[in-house]
Design brief:
Blueprint: H1 2-7, E1 16-17, E2 23-26, E3 29-30, E4 42-46, E5 49-52, E6 56-57, E7 63-64, E8 67-70, E9 73-76, H2 83-103
Antiparallel strand pairs: 1-2, 2-3, 4-5, 6-7, 8-9
Length: 105
């Protein structure tokens, strides 16, 4: 591996670094540091882009709550500890989806 390294010098794409450009940071944290990156609640897929666990949302997966997407619109509950609020949000989204589906026929 050292021999190959001496022959080639990689020019990394923006946001990537390392001998073979396989390393990147997510909001200042090395992407493989799973206990810290994305607030410990997701994985960093590309530089500064977190894919959050199902019960989290936010740029760095810092917010708790469920999200639902209907017709390219996403609604997120502020906190999963308020189950009534979550049920209301899901019911509203479901009713809107049914209304839009019914009216498009």
């Amino acid at each position: 591996m050292v021999f190959v390294h001496l022959l080639f010098n990689c020019k990394c794409s923006n946001g990537y670094y390392g001998t073979i450009c396989d390393l990147f940071d997510c909001f200042g944290v090395e992407h493989s540091n799973s206990s810290i990156v994305c607030s410990g609640n997701g994985i960093c897929q590309t530089p500064d882009f977190c894919k959050c666990n199902n019960d989290r949302h936010g740029i760095q997966c810092e917010a708790v709550g469920k999200c639902v997407t209907v017709n390219n619109s996403t609604l997120c509950a502020k906190s999963s500890t308020h189950s009534f609020d979550i049920h209301v949000i899901f019911m509203v989204v479901l009713l809107v989806a049914l209304f839009l589906t019914h009216n498009s026929l």
